[in-house]
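From the shared-data thread, chain only:
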Amino acid sequence: MRNICMTVSYDGTAYNGFQTQPNQNTIQDVLEKAILALTGETIKVTSSGRTDAGVHARCQVINFYTASKIPVERWCMALNTLLPADIVVSGARLADDSFHSRRSAVQKTYRYTIRCGKHPDLFKRHFEFYHPTALRVEAMREGLAYIEGRHDFTSFCSVRSTKLSNIRTVYEARLECEPQDPILQSYAIHIYVTGNGFLYNMVRIIAGTLIQVGEGKRSGGAMLEILNARSRAKAGPTAMAHGLTLWEVLYDQDATIT
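Structure, as tokens:
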């Protein structure tokens, strides 16, 4: 048996998240069906993280064990001929038997994108949350800085979370602005959050709260007050799923899987 590690990108618009669910269309189900068609094996794939319905991935990492003799360099091309156009396998390698795409990950980065201004970008409408007016970017940057470090993120976690601990470490949180599109008269704001792990809806709640900061409904400093309150009721709404993308995953071997 070989342990195969793969990098998968997908547009999550048409799917009910990554993880298999009864009577639902999920990324995991589609991948496993493609592997079955290719190898004749019924295999369960493991992912670096469970993205929700409508959430995308630039760099989702999976692994699975197979008895297939297909050369590792042929897996991507072979699977991509069986996958729909909104799922692409872009990398495959042999991994140690102990490698686990989720437990072996040392850090992950998510990106949340907001388009602000007069018109949305129709070509990116599935990947950007549209906000029709400008946001206070510097206030959002100020607020974002408070979440860096090791904290109890209860305020930024869904009450549906089943994790035993809400303590996580955010290594970096930054905001980048693209130049305004002269035709659309709008611009994209990208919020990047890198950490050792994430709670259920954590990045989307952070983004939803930051949008309120950008609208002037809260100050940048309110992010620290919300964090210290350790109460979901103190934070803002959960931002729409389609603005979120699993951006990058890092592993112990000091290699970025992209």
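The longest helix spans residues 27-39.
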